[in-house]
Design brief:
There is one protein chain. The chain is mostly beta strands. It has four domains: 136 residues, Sandwich (Immunoglobulin-like); 118 residues, no CATH class; 49 residues, no CATH class; 114 residues, Phage bIL170 RBP, head domain (Immunoglobulin-like, Sandwich), CATH 2.60.40. Helices cover 4% and strands 37% of the residues. The chain has two helices and 35 strands. A 13-stranded antiparallel sheet has the order 11-12-13-14-15-16-17-18-19-20-21-22-23, with no helix packed on it. A five-stranded antiparallel sheet has the order 25-30-33-32-31. The protein has a four-stranded antiparallel sheet with strand order 7-6-9-10, with no helix packed on it. The protein is elongated, with a radius of gyration of 61 Å. The termini are far apart.
Length: 536
């Protein structure tokens, strides 16, 4: 073999190989070609990737330049952020640029991270993105390349406050400067939306009110001049001491009904019902008008908690019956009669020939001493024309006294002592008791002393003249002897003399045999009824 020829052939083959295209018709079968830079660092992978896909992957690229400062503005329900496609300091976009990240946060001076990433701009021409938000936001941009490397963040802009949407406008957020002049028209004002505090003093005058526009409403403060208010409640306050004009106040004479009235609230903590000034008609057949003024109630002690109060009632005249009349009643409630009454009632004559009357009436509770359980003890003073009647009544008696120009007429007996006193029986005697009484005495207005009831001799020894029945107190003893004949024992008895002595003893003398026999049995008695005497 010629060595020289062989070497010349190899040189020619090498030259042809150098002149031909590299990897012409070459293939990477199930593998990848690694691309490294001059330092040997991996910068790219061409072919089969680690996840089984085929691609050209750039790795370990240098960080891209920072984007230019973003623009931002408030938007409905958030803010809008824009990037113009340029970079800080006029830097050129690198070929491995991937996107621009938009970061937002309510915190001033925040550092972009995965929490603050809210949107991306994927085109190198730039763009505008919308960020939903409810609070003011600060914004920064960060660029990334295909290797995932991040650029420095842009300078922070903001804060920008989102524009509210329907349902998210807070109280006081829409100020006067945000509303255009003339923007709010009548159809845009909700019914009853403009309240009194929003009206300037004096801003509503007669020209601004439609005729008959105010009906059945409440006017608080200010003045109502030359107008008629129909319906509704007019009051000086909502609590405490106040006056209320109420078209449906509780009727004081019938709590189950209502009546137009002026309610008088005292403001007292113990008040259970207000005072009431009203005009009504009587509930009897006459049905005549009257005006009533009732006091506030502070205690409900009647049946079913009925109020206790006082009333002044002024009644109209009734032609053919009476003139004007009035009543002052400390307990006018008919459902609370058990609590007694105190009343004055009067009326004037009906014409020149009629009679006027004035009555004062007072009654205790129905169960007070002398009451019947249905009616309490009571007194009357009635004045009519030239006659005055005084009347006292309880469960056992009814006494009247009349004073007239012709004289005084008294029904019953007039007493000086307030009540009857009981005698103290001597030995061998006792009051008969029961319906016949214990033996009593009493001083009368005419100065006489009256005895009453039956006295029984309980001793069985033979009675003698001078026997003492009882002894009177010193104030009831006569200055001289008084004697009266008495009969005892009926047809089988006899007579004796009953003596009232200056020493106060009541003795028996002039006893007949029949009287002695009757009064010595242990059960005989003598009557003191109809026996009276004077002290002098």
């Amino acid at each position: 073999m010629d060595i020289g020829l062989k070497i010349a052939a190899l040189e020619k083959a090498v030259q042809e190989l150098q002149r031909s295209a590299r990897l012409s018709s070459a293939a990477l079968d199930d593998t990848a070609l690694l691309v490294r830079d001059g330092t040997g660092s991996l910068r790219g992978i061409v072919g089969q990737q680690g996840d089984g896909t085929t691609a050209v992957t750039i790795v370990n690229g240098a960080p891209p330049p920072a984007p230019a400062t973003p623009t931002a503005a408030p938007a409905l329900g958030g803010i809008s952020v824009g990037w113009g496609g340029t970079f800080a300091n006029g830097a050129v976009i690198p070929l491995d640029w991937a996107r621009v990240e938009v970061h937002a946060s309510p915190a001033d001076g925040f550092t972009p991270d995965s929490e603050s990433l809210v949107a991306t701009i994927e085109t190198a021409q730039g763009g505008i993105v919308y960020i939903p938000a409810t609070t003011p936001q600060y914004v920064r941009l960060v660029a990334r390349n295909t290797s995932g490397s991040a650029s420095p963040a842009t300078a922070q802009v903001g804060p920008y406050t989102p524009k509210p949407v329907a349902g998210e406008i807070g109280i006081g957020e829409i100020t006067e400067t945000l509303i255009a002049d003339g923007a709010v028209t009548t159809p845009k004002v909700f019914a009853n939306a403009v309240t009194t505090p929003k009206l300037a003093a004096g801003s509503v005058d007669a020209t601004a009110l439609r005729a008959d526009a105010i009906t059945g409403k409440i006017i608080t403060g200010g003045q109502v001049n030359g107008a008629v208010v129909t319906g509704g409640i007019v009051r000086t306050g909502t609590s405490g001491q106040r006056i209320v004009l109420n078209p449906q106040a509780a009727d004081p004479s019938d709590p189950a009904s209502t009546v137009p009235a002026v309610e008088l609230h005292s403001g007292a903590a113990a008040q259970t019902a207000p005072g009431v000034l009203s005009a009504q008609v009587t509930d009897d057949s006459s049905a005549y008008p009257y005006a009533s003024l009732r006091s506030p109630s502070v205690a409900n002690i009647g049946p079913g908690g009925q109020p206790v109060n006082s009333e002044l009632r002024l009644l109209s005249s009734q032609p053919g019956i009476r003139g004007g009349s009035f009543s002052v009643d400390a307990n006018p409630n008919p459902y609370n009669s058990e609590s007694g009454a105190s009343r004055a009632y009067g009326y004037t004559a009906n014409g020149t020939t009629g009679t006027s009357s004035l009555e004062l009436y007072c009654a205790d509770g129905v169960s007070a001493p002398g009451g019947t359980g249905l009616l309490g003890p009571r007194t009357y003073v009635t004045m009519s024309g030239s006659e005055i009647r005084l009347r006292a009544r309880n469960s056992t008696s009814d006494l009247s006294m009349y004073i007239r120009p012709a004289g005084i007429n008294i029904q019953g007996r007039i007493f000086t002592d307030s009540d009857w006193s009981t005698l103290t029986p001597a030995s061998g005697w006792s009051g008969y008791g029961g319906n016949y009484g214990p033996g009593r005495f009493r001083l009368m207005p005419d100065g006489s002393i009256v005895l009453r009831d039956l006295m029984r001799r309980t001793a069985t020894t033979t009675i003698a003249n001078g026997n003492t029945i009882a002894t009177l107190p010193a104030a009831y003893r006569p200055t001289t002897w008084w004697q009266q004949t008495a009969w005892v024992g009926g047809t089988t008895g006899g007579s004796c003399a009953l003596n009232i002595n200056p020493d106060g003893t009541i003795t028996l003398t002039n006893l007949t045999s029949g009287a002695i026999s009757y009064l010595s049995t242990g059960s005989g008695y003598i009557s003191l009824n109809n026996y009276s005497y004077f002290l002098d």
